[in-house]
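Researcher: Good morning. I'm working through a list of sequences from a screen, and I'd like to move beyond sequence-only analysis. For each chain I'm collecting a predicted structure so we can compare shapes side by side. This is the next one on the list. No need for commentary yet; just the structure.
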Amino acid sequence: MTRSCLMNNRDCYGKPIYFFLFLFCCVIFLSGSSSWATPIQISSIEELQKIGNDANYPLNGVYELTEDIDASATSNWNEKAGFKPIGTFNNPFAGDFNGKGYKIKGLVISRADEDDIGLFGYIDAGGKVHNLRLENVSIKGNSNVGGLVGRNEGVVTQSCVNSGTIKGADYVGGLTGQNVGTVSQCYNLATITGNNRVGGLIGENLASVSNSYNSSSVTGKNYIGGLIGYNNSQGNNVTNCYSRGTVRTTAASTEEHITGGLIAKKESGNINNCYWDINASGQSTSDGGTGKTTEEMKQKGTFINWDFETVWRIYSSDVYPYPYPFLRDISPGSIIIDSVGELQKIGKIYPLNGEFELIKDIDISGIDLPPIGTNKDNPFKGKFDGKGYKIIGLTINRTSENYVGLFGYVDTKGEIKNLNIENASVSGSSFVGILAGQSYGTVSNCYTEGSVSGYTSASSSTSSFIGVLIGRNHGTVSSCRAKGSISGSTNISSIGILAGQNYGTISSCHAEGSVSGYASIGGAVGSNSGKISSCYAEVTTQGSINVGGLVGENNNEISNCYATGSVSGILYSGGLVGGNYRGTINYCYSAGPVSKTSGASYIGGLLGYNHLGTVSNSYWDTETSKQSSSAGGTGKTTAKMKQRATFAGWDFEKVWYIKENQSYPQLVSQFVGLNVVPDVVGMNQNSAQTVIKSANLTVGDVIQECSNDTSSGNVISQNPPAGTQVDPGSAVTITVSTGACPMTLKELKNIIKKRFSLLDANGDNLISWDELSIVYPWLTREIFSQIDTNGDGNISQDEATTKNACGCTSKSFGNDSLWRHLFDFIFIGILLFMMNGSRLNK
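Model: Good morning. Structure tokens for this chain:
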């Protein structure tokens, strides 16, 4: 029976096995289709180099960047030849690469004797690269040389080369050396040098180009164009493009040298609505396009039929058109800020109620930048989204002026978010902060770092409201960090790292650094008349009156906060708060040293002085503070301060976290996205790696193991386990299932022996037909007789574990033994399934 049913392509229930073969083929087909694949995430230059060089990174794969990549190390790769381009003439890139608006910085390729040179050497007709930025590249090649791709036959869109140098012999372009595919919404700012057929964007174009531009210099001998060196696009168009870069030829006067402001030579194709700057380029002619003066190139009316709603942006009489839209999800209507010049225009050329988005880091070192929005009559009331980028080297020196900061005065309608300011130096009289002097608006997810100074002026003998983040806050501040120092005149007052004075709301923020002054000196906030929650300070604080590790003077509400920095004062000094005046302090603690200076009074471990205020569920460390008393709160030893039981009533589910007997309580908010290991068990490998990286951690070893409980490709276990606090960038090792574990014959025999008793109802170590058929009504006498080899009507343990009962031991796969092998495997599989669900435990 076994042989006959299988030989006739039917199983023993009469169902065609063709169906199963069909399903098998479908699974194989779908598993090999890249369109169904989860994108492979690229987060380092080493991973990028694996494309096409590692079996797990195929040239037809789907990829996406997850962060900016520093590629400067490539300068020392491959005996100084640098990065190896992705894709070659014989093995081109045919996948999908999404840069997600991120950038690759410092890429080096030095292969002067090789062709098809760029980040991508050769892109096939099925390949696509989009949303990618290159910055500060150094690329050298022979023929078909481009910043992004040497030869393109696919689609390149919404990509750019921001800066650097690109050099080659022939067919050299800022974006691509030779284009046979589609290029749209791309631009180049890198310097281009070549010999023949050299263009700011494309060396030789044989296809379609639209909504793109070049803004850098182009140098070569022959066929040198601002946008395209040589165009032979036949029935394809070059549409809505421009160039403003300088075009030069190095050819001797006796040599052939054809140049063009936009295109040097047009063999065929249509050039529609394209322009070049005749002043900037130094070229009065072009084999296609229309030449305009610099003034005309900055006027919207020049660009006929251009889409200034969804593709381009321009601000009349001031800037050239720029592509709007593809980097880091720029919002409709936003003004793009990509230089110090653009930043300086806010409040002058650009309106103070405009919407602005930073699209790159800006270094403004050495420039004394005037504040944006100077006072309540001229405030900033727009929106500024830093998109996570940095302003580096901010310097503002206005020692006799008030409302000093990147933003001097922010209105209630003002909104500032996702902005980082580093290495800043800001000086003013009163209302001074790196981000804002005074704010009534909304500030979120911002970081400032640097030094701030306050000085007296001719009109005032005091300097007040000084902060590393904000001078005085009347608005909402959330999820911000500030690090730095505050100093100045001896009578400086109301100073704190986050805010000198607060009348608004500050939540989930962190202060770090040092402050010194006269009165109302706090690690986070000098004087608080608003609400502060889920904040912490690690600040060295010095002053005379109302000096506190978190807040100097509190007149309102503080909850779920802590301070660990040192405090030194003369009158009203405390580890958390100096003086509390009718204010409330709930669920807080302090653990820093509190010093008594000569003649000091009202010094406390948590609170120095309390006037009609309320302190509840709050504690201080009596050992580290060296203070046995406080005007409020409860003192505990260091050991007790590291035990959850001490903090009765605290929310350790959503607000606080403590590592029992190892650390003081810490705020959950301070670890989100930083260094708490996420739970990735059960996720598929790609998702798990994404979650780990998004938590500011790295993926460590990926161990492959079989598992009978976890589906193939999913995570079985992780180390460290979920919830563990680790340093940012720490590695998380994951173990990934390869599928069900294989079963050996020995294991199978052991399983059958262990389960034999389940079927042996009368306990005589024999299984009769009656015993077995009751459990398995589908069982036939023929199958039973195959296992009952001695024909006594019973199955013994020996018979149950012989090769006659399991043909899988057969070494022959020909003729009859093949069908016996297949059938017995199915039979045993069903038997095991019926006995124990899907699989027996070993």
